[in-house]
Amino acid sequence: MALDLKNLDLRDALDLAILVEDEALERYQEFARLVGGRYPGDAADVFKQMAGFERKHGDELRARRRELFQDAPSRVRLEMLDDVEAPDRGAPRVFMSARDAVEVALASEQKAWAFYDGALPQVTDPSVRILFESLREEEKGHQALLKRRLAGLPAGPDLTEEEADAPGSDPG
Is the pTM of this model over 0.85? Predict the structure, then answer.
């Protein structure tokens, strides 16, 4: 069953936003496990940091939903969306660089911004419009944060397994 954005009310919109954050959180946690941590600031650290951002954002949305709608059941399910903000499943690689991890995260934030921006013309409920506009702006802020971080990272290829295991190969 696809999600009909024209008929979203504020409760459904909050539930959708929570699912978007939770899906991204789970994907970033999976990526952190897959790439493994080798040194402070590596790709696993980038993914762990992004998971933390997604968790915090989801918790804020959950608190707002609880405040407005208590324990009313959700009508929105994960099957109704896929990869709104979650990074591409094929993105992680063992020994990927922090720079590549930030680029994966940036692409995810751009994808989330595009989702909310594309949804706005279809949304008729004024409270949902305000929420989606706010979420779209937050995604823009996340992009700016990641671009600043990217600017501080060295350009270059990922490490090979041999390079990563070499003594003194800590690129951080």
Answer: no
What does pLDDT average to over the chain?
84
Those residues with Cβ within 8 angstroms of residue 160's Cβ, 6 or more apart along the chain or in another chain? 95
How far is CA 120 from each of CA 14, 40, 76, 134, 145, rounded to the nearest angstrom? 14, 39, 18, 11, 24
Structure tokens at 46: 């980038």
pLDDT of 172 strictly over 50: no
167 band by pLDDT with thresholds 50, 70 and 90: very low
- Give the single-character DSSP code of 123: -
What DSSP letter does each residue of 125-156 carry, written as one string? -HHHHHHHHHHHHHHHHHHHHHHHHHHTSPP-
Q: Which CATH superfamily is domain 5-70+94-154 in?
A: Ferritin, core subunit, four-helix bundle (1.20.1260.10)
CB proximity list for 17: less than 8 A, separation 6 or greater: 61, 131, 135
CB 54 within 8 A of CB 23: no
Tens-digit pLDDT profile for residues 16-52: 889 989 999 999 999 999 998 888 889 999 999 999 9
CA separation for the pair 128, 126 (Å, rounded): 5
